[in-house]
# Entry
Amino acid sequence: MTSSAFPQSIIARKRDGHALAPEEIAAFVRGVAQGGWTDYQATALLMAIFLRGMTPEETVCLTGQMMSSGVVADLTGIPGVKVDKHSTGGVGDKVSLVLAPLVAACGVPVPMMSGRGLGHTGGTLDKLESIPGFRVGLSLTEYVAQIRRIGVAMIGQTAELAPADRKLYALRDVTATVESIPLICASIMSKKLAEGVDALVLDVKFGRGAFMQSRTRAHELAVALVAIGRAMGRPTRALLTSMEQPLGRTVGNAVEVVEAIEALQGRGPADLMAVTYALGVHMLLLARVASDPADARRRLETTMASGAALARFRELVAAQGGDPAVVDDYSRLPRAGYLRDVPAPHSGYVTDVDPMAIAQVALRLGAGRSHAAASVDHAVGLTGLKKVGEAVQAGDPLCTVHARDNALLDAALPPTAAAFKIDSRPVQPSPLIDELVE
Ligand code: URA
# Structure
């Protein structure tokens, strides 16, 4: 090993504000994945990157190295442009459950690798696992075979895909180095590229319920992610979407699956459908199955109305070992034993539903996890959430809380009520779809 390849030399160069050479980045990722770097050396470099940043070239190099730290799924034998969607995470964000089967039913293969809920944001895998029997842990061979057979698979990060990210993310989580744009970009994009996608649509959320609360920072992240996609030869587009109130009318796991099934039956709430269609349009365009945005939108709506998207969801559930009868019988999903409505204290218009406050309630009910190893209660959450702009009469339910016991229910009621603001004059919700970055 030359002295410049020693971990301490690489850490010192980044500490002093230099751009790292490709071989230094390669040595770091190799050292993390294979154990040549200690955790304290890796976290020292992560903190130096957090404080000093990375050039676009360094970020692209880090992404490529992290992607190559494990197996890269080969989907080239499957016809069509394979397109995935990734969301940076929000509250009540069940878009993937609707979008993946819908886009697959439009003829676009969708290889989707999702995450679990952490902190205030929910995770697609936890929602799917509320369906009895549903397996998110497919092997890579099963994953490829399923995409070939039914055009869609929804899985968790396997041990073979981007193992360096798994290790680095765990270190970042406990060393206050998560919120770094180059590190977030390399983490997200290395996994997406390893899953074998040809193109990618990103939902970059901003606002109080988002991971990136500031719109400026979310825009910066979107631009950086799109640039990496382009540099790696995978056309990528990002939509900036607002997370100033929960998406849809449910927050939890099984309760969000029910809302997603209703959306697939054509009865989804307007905001959930707006985000789903906006992202779907770009997936169809990137897959080159639609000629323009109006054509893409028409195809999505026709497919939804025909029942083909719901049928594909049913097929997906059955293919991954889940109980497809949940689609027609919600009582087969886990249900909480203790339910109570939260009444509006006076008549007026809902002017705010604080997404972070609602997320904290859901977390305390057990719907989310406070640390990565925590388990999730699939049954609990909130339903029937009133939306900003809606009129309410005194005593009308603002939402219903679903809890595992009376103590948790009682504790949830005051913070849930405090999350809503009701005024005598209506307000317009902030625009949901903000900007396309391509
Ligand atoms: N999601 C990821 O997968 N990685 C990050 O670094 C942040 C969010």
